[in-house]
Structure formats: C-alpha cells, structure tokens
Amino acid sequence: SDDRWTQAGLTVQGKIGNFDLVYAFAHLKRDVDLESDYNDYGFWYDTVYGYGAYFYDDNGDLINPSQYIQAADRYKKTSHELRISSPSDDRLRFVAGVFWQDQFHDIEQNYKVDNLASSLVVTGTGNNIWLTKQERRDHDEAVFGEITYDITDKLTATGGMRYFRAHNSLEGFFGFGRGYSGTPFPPDPADYTGGVNNPTYISKLASYQIKVLKAYGEAKCELLYGPDSSQWTKFNGAPCEVFNKEVKESGSLGRVNVTYKFNDRHLIYATWSEGYRPGGVQRRGILPNYKADFLTNYEIGWKTSWADNRLTFNGSVFREEWKNFQFSVLGLNGLTDIRNAAQAEITGFETEINWAATYNLVLSGGLSYYDAKLSADYCGTLDSNNDPETVCTDPEAPSGTQLPVTAKFKSNLNARYTWDVGSMEAYWQATYAHMGRRTTDLRLHDRAVYGDMPAFDTLDLSFGVKKNNWSLDLFVKNVTDERGQMNRFLQCATDVCGAQGYDAMYPNGQIYITPIQPRTYGIRFSQEF
User: Fold this and answer.
1) Is 194 left (phi over 0), alpha (psi -120 to 50) or beta?
2) Which of 173, 308, 365, 506 is deepest in the core (most CB within 10 A)?
3) What single string gives the DSSP state of each residue in 390-423?
C-alpha cells in the first residue's frame, strides 16, 4: 500500500472584553493506494456454487477465478469551530459556539481476474469482474452552549445543549459488467388475457420491480438508461451512475452535570448526557438507508487524592442506553450492509489507581467491567417506518445477547522505577494487561461460525536512560509472545466463506484472525529540539 497525507491546523485566540474567543481550523488530505488479495471470494463461490464455470478467457477456456483488488481512496476533511467563553473564575460562566465540517471520499475499488474474457469485464476497465466507483460526502453543522453555576463553594451545576444537522450522500456505480449479470425484462401485458388486469401479469410485474430494486452494475445501467451504452449517464469513468442517495437528519442533544467537592482532594459527580452517530446510505437498492443511533449515558463518579497526593483513586459507574445502534454485516456479493438494532444497554464501572510507593517507584492500575447486551430482540427485519422490529418467533439475536467485540473485563497494572546514573536519569518499566473474552457478531448464527475471541494477557518490559534533550530506550513488547486475537473475519458472506463440510483443508470455512503484535524487541533513540 501507499499512504500519503497532508494535515494542517490553525488556532486563533483573542478577547472581546472579558470574553475569550477561539477559532480552530483543521484540514486533512489523504491519498491511499492499495493492492490486496481477494482469492477467498472466487474460491468459496466456486466451491459452494460452482461459479468457477463462469470464468473463461476470450477463447472460451476456463481460467483461474482468483481475484485481487486494486483500490484508490482519496479523502478530504475540513472543519471550523468558533467558540466564546466567559471568565472561568466567574460564579456564573458559559461556553457557546458553532461547528461546521465537510468530508469527501472518492472511492475506487477494482476487483480483477487475470485473462478474463472481454465480454465479462466491466466496460472501460482492463480485467475487472467488479467495479466500485463512488463519491461520499458528509456535511455536519452544530450550535452548542453550556452554562456552569457555582451554587455554593462546593456544589457546581452545569447544563448544556447541542443542536445538530447532518447531510450525508453517496452516489456512483458498483457491480459486474454486462456480460456477467443478466438484465431482467418487464413482462408484456399482451402475453396475458386481460392485459394489465391479469393476476399473473400483476404478479410478474411485481417480481420484475423487485428485481429492478435489487439490480446493480451494468444490468442496472440497462434498466435505467436502455440497452444503448452510449446513452448511459457516465460517472467518473464508470459505465454509468446506478444510484444517488442522501440522508438528512437534525436534532438536539443535552448534558447535565452536578459536581460536589468535599475539599481540594475529593469530589464526586453525577452526569446525564446524550450522544449520536449520523445515519447513512446503503448501496444496495433494496435496502433502506440506515438511521442515526443515539446513546444516553447516566454516570456517577469520583476523583480522590490521598496520602499527601501520593495516592489517587478515580472511577465511575454508569449505565448507557443505546437506541437504534448501528452495526455492519457482510452481505451478498461481499457488500457491507449497515443495520440498526432496536435497543441495547451497557452497565459497568471503570477505575484507576496511581500510587507513588517510594520516591523512585510508581505503581498504577486500572479495572473495567462492561455488561453490554441487547435489551430487545433483534429480528433482522424492519417495520413500515424502517424501524427495527422486536417481536418475532425466531430472532437472530434475542434480548440479553452480549454485544460483540466488547470484553466484560479489562485490566492493567504498571510499575515504573526511576533512579540516577551519574548525570543521567534511568528507568525500568513493566506493564501487564488483561483482555477478556469477546464475541465476534451480534447474530447467533454468524457468531457460531466465526467463533469467540478468547481472553489473553500481555507483558511489556522496557529500560531506558535520559539526559538533557535526548533519550535511549530498550523494550520488549509481548514478552510471552501471546497470540491474542483482535478480530475474526471472513472475506465474503458467512454462509459462503464460512461454509462447513465443503473443503477438506478448511472444514469449518476460512476464518481469518487478526492477532496482536507478536514478541517484538526494539531500541528507540529520541531527541527534542
């Protein structure tokens, strides 16, 4: 891969009377070119369905159906924020501002098969069996404000609101060439007694309309613009534009916090807050756009310092309610679908402790617990308002199902010892971390195919010296060479690439594992200027 990027930022600070004024600008431009293997797609569709028989060259001879991807992604992101705040030592103080952000993503993915017959390739490409050529735009605006009031010297209350608007769009082409995807044709009413009123014709027409919705690639081009490709509406070098969709959303979010300080070293707080993630566009025409998801957080926490500030103990307990939460699935033809599930809840706690045991030795640690689960059945279907249905006889994930990826338990422990060696400062450090067992998918059927990611522990060691503006570090990461898993995935649909009993070498399908970094030795020299 080749990843090139430029990033710029600007912050301007000023005053209007006693009020502080801050303007922040950020810009990112990133170009990524990538080539990757995609053999599993061709192998498993041939193994399960015999699709290899459809891959041949211009002489009609069968060829190796193995695929690979050549991709080019072009990103641009620009944001502006302007905020004004009153003096922080006022009893009644405020922060208010506006936010604006534009994001652009030019997507090109060429799925190639060498020596593929010219009649099967996507028009205008060398040997593409599939082409994705799209443009995505995301625009976000927000107005926000927050007021804080010191009710007493010890009790402080804060309230805030944020109004947002989001406009997301996706347009372009995706799919096979004309020779690899048949085009559905509408039924002729003249073929049926009674014409358009014939029940058989009506049924055939309904079936045709569903096929039109499901169509993509050059088959969709024919349906939209006719069989003459010269009349197709082109799109950035792709055969045509097969879809142009957008989502517009707006709403408001709130936050309330109450903090009580017992003294300079001990406080407790309670927070209610809301957050959201914008909805978006599905590429597959038969699927509706996915909706925004919203998170409501209830939290009680504490921040404390003891033993002349040598010991700190902080933590929080919380409950989060997640409505219409989004998750992705790998659907037909390797297309990713974003879906909404009705409701989930997360209950847990997080703690951290830091202890200066001696002048030289500092110990720190953390412990987290998350009970993340569905609070309503996930049926995998939508109602007439495109909201997730929660009443069904055989849900894909029943209420109480653990949410994927998140471990119930996580912990860490760190010890750092420093001392002087002549004119240099030396240290050694040991870090232990535990990651609990995690599930891979929300849906029980797919979870059984993927399997769970087991718990694992890691140990990192390092030693170094520092003098003036330079430092030298020796380190070993993952001392025990633990093979912890960060992800388990397939390259195509679960029932295809995860098919069981089809291949002796892969009796349970081809499940890939993304491991953590193996045992790594290193030396690092740093200098500050």
Assistant:
1) left
2) 173
3) ---SS-SB-TTPBPSS--SEEEEEEEEEEEEETT
List, for residues 202-244, the tens digit of each pLDDT value.
888 788 777 777 788 998 898 888 888 899 999 999 999 999 9
Which tens digit of pLDDT belongs to each residue from 354-382? Answer: 999 999 999 999 999 999 999 999 999 88
Asked whether 374 and 343 are in contact (CB, 8 A), the reply is yes
Instruction: Report d(CA 182, CA 216) in Å as an integer.
Output: 10
Amino acid of residue 207: S
**Phi, psi dihedral angles at 248 (to 5 degrees):** -120, 130
At 381, list the tokens.
Answer: 């279907």
Secondary structure (3-state) at 355: strand
Name which of 52, 71, 44 is nearest 116 in CA terms: 52
Threshold 0.70, pTM exceeds: yes
Q: Give, in order, the Cα–Cα distances in Å from 240 to each of 74, 81, 237, 384, 392.
A: 20, 38, 8, 31, 40
How far apart CA 239 and CA 243 sit, in angstroms, is 12
**With pLDDT > 70 as the criterion, what percentage of the chain qualifies?**
99
In the DSSP assignment, the letter for residue 190 is G
Element (H, E) at 176: strand 155-176
For the record, the structure tokens of 511 come out as 């499940």
Contact 375, 384 (CB under 8 A): no
CA atoms 399, 402, 406, 407: torsion sign: positive
Q: Say how far apart CA 417 and CA 70 lie, in whole Å.
A: 49
* Rounded distance between C-alpha atoms, residue 217 and residue 174, angstroms: 5
